[in-house]
Amino acid sequence: MKRIFFLTLLCLFLFIFPQGVYASSNFLTNYDVTYTIYENQNSNVRINVNLTNTSDVYYASSYKIQVGFEEIKNIKAFDSSGSIVPTVVVNGKDKIINLEFNDRIVGAGNKLNFTLSFDTSNIANKSGKIWEINIPGLSKQEDFDSFRVHVVTPKSFGNPSFVKPILANKPVRKQGSFDFEKEDLGKSGISMTFGDEQVYEFDLKYHLANKNIYPIKTEIALPPSTNYQDIIIDDINPKPENVTIDEDGNWLAQYMLSPSQKITAIVHGKAKVKLNPTKELLSPEQALKYLNEEKYWEVLSPKIVSIAKDLKTPQKIYNYVVGKLNYDYSRVSQEKPRLGALNALNNPTSAVCLEFTDLFIALARAAGIPAREVNGYGFTRDSKERPLSLGQDILHSWPEYYDKESQSWIMIDPTWGNTTGGIDFFNVMDFDHIAFVIKGIDSEYPVPAGGYKLENDKNSKDVNISLSENFMRNPSTFQIYENFSKNYVAGFPINGELTIKNLGSAISENNQLIIESGFLTPSRQRIVFEKIPPFGYTTVKVKFDKTSFLTNRQEHIKITIGGTTLSYKINLSPFFLNIFFLIGGSIIVAIFTIGISIYFIKSRNLSFFRQKE
Predict the structure, then answer these.
(1) Looking at the structure, do residues 190 and 210 belong to the same domain, yes or no?
(2) Fewest beta carbons within 10 Å, which of 54, 239, 292, 528?
(3) Structural domain tally of the chain?
């Protein structure tokens, strides 16, 4: 009778049978694995294995499992004959657990059952307001006849925000247990998140310099509120002249720099990241702008057009990019130039997040799907599985496409879809992506935080992100500056301007201005203006109809926005009583009198001369 050492490798909890071992042909393998999650962030892993011998010649003597967790403890194992004393060998960050069986099951159809259990803190993690559970999947499904996974969570977790993989009938939950079959898992494993939102605190530095001998106007890009995130800006030092919003929704803080002036703008704020996007209507005219060819997005390239014609949908384009490109970890530290979509397609083994993003955008636009780029911060605990590679502050880049059905921009991440071995970053994203800038109209502008470095600041840490618990958004408050004349001439339209400054830390929610007057018409005006970012302002024009030419009165104009009210008085008077007309009239009368006098003098002289003749 032949004796084999039955070897199974569990690498990062991915199950792999090495070549040269007759596992598939001589044994049927059935797994039932339970992950029990505790509120102290520890987890218990219990692996029940059933081996059915299909041969009268071979039997299993031992079993090895390579566990891809840095920390395991309380290791226990047993088979039907009693306890097994496991031995552990360290292999880098992994642990190899060797089990010598008590039983020797010989003969076709006979079964060997054994159990291995251990505790680890590497599965569940509490980050800020979110609980995350990550369990890698199967590398070779064909090596298992059955494979069932149960994830048991505390009742205090409630229902998950999302579960990956997304199942057609949703995972079965019985008394806090989520059940998965081998067919559900694939290579992507299980990713579960509990919580409704994640809050981050950020401190950003922007280094600016004017090398000219004349003043210049420049701007920096602040993290903006989007359909996935809300932003509050608690402080900017020094204060900007204004903060405006561009076509992509970026918040641009403007500064005036005198000749040779250098400043470092420091921005402190918070971001609240949501899982599901809100609606954002895109007009047909706007949609066309997100189909244009730009640098790095070679939409008109015959090669890009040909591939896009076959793929057609965002899902297929995402799958193509994830499968086509290979992430090049060596480029992260080498600062090699951005390749763009076409060069990435021609050099698929040397891609980082920008190439994954550029290729998706170019293919999507060529297929008639509006798409754009997002630069920002990816909160990651594993730079190998979820790498960051944009700029010296190690930011991240990912694309968005516009979905007409949901009327919303949809974030996806083909880079992490590639580096995590197929975890779904198309149908469901996560709470780990913070947008700093959006690039749709221009593929190179604006520059995200972390990209504003001077020669002496190249090694400075300009992006600092940390988890937070509280996100207090105060009600919008405004300051109104009026630009009306104090005196108006009756019989003419009354024109003026109002400057509205946002004094709050968040983008203005109330973008409606009410103008009221008891005498002027219209007596009540409702003016809608664009939303104002924190530290920004906007100017709106106000107009009243002309009054009677004989109007002579003082009128109060009441201006209301949110809880802020301003009252302003103007004087209306006929032109002959108006001081400005009186002054102007006096000048006209004087000029007229002088002209008449000259005329008569000349007339007299002429007459006198004629009479003399």
Answers:
(1) no
(2) 528
(3) 5
Same domain, 79 and 205: no
Nearest-angstrom CA–CA distance, 390 and 448: 10
Q: With 0-12 CB in 10 A as exposed, 13-18 as middle and 19+ as buried, what is 77?
A: buried
pLDDT of 15 over the 80 cut? no
pLDDT at position 371 over 80: yes
Angstrom distance (rounded) from CA 246 to CA 531:
12
What are the contacts of 295-298 at 24+ separation with CB within 8 A?
A: 295/340, 295/443, 295/444, 296/338, 296/339, 296/340, 296/341, 296/354, 296/358, 296/362, 296/443, 296/444, 297/340, 297/341, 297/358, 297/361, 297/362, 297/365, 297/443, 298/340, 298/341, 298/342, 298/362
Taking CA atoms, 295 is separated from 188, 289, 312, in Å, by: 34, 14, 22
Residue 592 and residue 523 share a domain: no
The dihedrals phi and psi of 382, each to the nearest 5 degrees, come to -140, 100
Domain that holds residue 235: 197-274
* 35 neighbors 152 (Cβ within 8 angstroms): yes
Distance (Å, rounded) from C-alpha 414 to C-alpha 485? Answer: 58
What span, in angstroms and rounded, lies between the C-alpha atoms of 213 and 446? 25
d(CA 52, CA 592): 119
Measured CA to CA in angstroms, residue 247 lies from 231, 240, 441 at distances of: 18, 20, 8
Question: For 1-14, b where at least 16 C-beta lie within 10 A, e where not — what string?
Answer: eeebebbbbbbbbb
The answer for residues whose C-beta is within 8 angstroms of residue 173's C-beta and 6 or more apart is 179
Under a CB-based contact definition with an 8 Å cutoff, are residues 80 and 24 in contact?
no
| pLDDT band (50, 70, 90) for residue 593 | low
- Contacts of residue 50, Cβ cutoff 8 Å, sequence gap at least 6: 28, 29, 30, 31, 32, 111, 112, 113
Do 127 and 150 have their domain in common?
yes
Mean pLDDT value of segment 143-160: 88
Tell me which amino acid residue 96 is. I
pLDDT at 382: 63
pLDDT in tens, 153-198: 998 888 888 888 766 555 555 557 888 888 777 666 788 899 999 9
**190 and 299, same domain (yes or no):** no
Helix axes of 314-324 and 302-311: crossing angle, nearest 10 degrees: 120
Which of 456, 491, 512 is the endpoint of a domain? 456
**Amino acid letter at 79?**
D
Q: Which phi and psi (to 5°) does residue 608 adopt?
A: -60, -40
Compute φ and ψ for 353, nearest 5 degrees.
-60, -35
Domain assignment present for residue 468? The answer is no
Q: Angle between the 353-366 and 302-311 helix axes, to the nearest 10 degrees? A: 80
Tokens 């050099």 map to which residue? 347
Task: Look up residue 606 and give its two tokens.
Answer: 């002429």
Tokens of 613: 């003749």
Cut 0.70: pTM above it: yes
* Residue in 97, 229, 159 with CA at minimum distance from that of residue 506: 229
